[in-house]
Task: structure prediction
Amino acid sequence: MDNKVFSDVKTEYTKYSRLYQTYIDKTVPYTGYRWGAFAGLLLLFMLRIVMAQGWYIVCYTLGIYLLNLFLAFLQPKFDPSLEQDMRDQDMEEGEGLPTTEAPGAADGGEFRPFIRRLPEFKFWYNAARATAIGLFCTFFAIFDIPVFWPILLIYFIVLFCLTMRRQIQHMIKYRYLPFDFGKVKYNRG
Result:
């Protein structure tokens, strides 16, 4: 009897998870609509926080998580600083000949596409899911921990500025641009 119940539950769970995944997969080409829906959900969350005047810890936690996602979205999948450190280490150990140009040399014309550590769709999906969970948490008094919210806001702003400054310096040092604007575009033909 227990195996049948477990089997039925597992079958229903699989059916609904496939249906959910089908609908999520259908949203992939609609980038603007997805981000618009996320902006609406985030606005709803912020309105809930402001109107209820509470759940600042939930808001702060969501902000830190979204900052973490944004940084992963901005970073390349293969960190150029680690690659440079490995090249320097190999040169010190005397293992073989260098396979790339010397640091500071002119660009060799090699095409190296920017591959994100966190793809855009996963960034959107995780951000929307976290915001929905945060909104859900604002309906329970257990998550409304009393804090002095201006300190959390100032700390988040300082953390954001320092983190983004470091990320921008990294982008300038290793000459990569995670966005399409400002990049050279070539004609097909």
User: Anything to note?
Assistant: The first helix runs from residue 2 to 26. The radius of gyration is 23 Å.
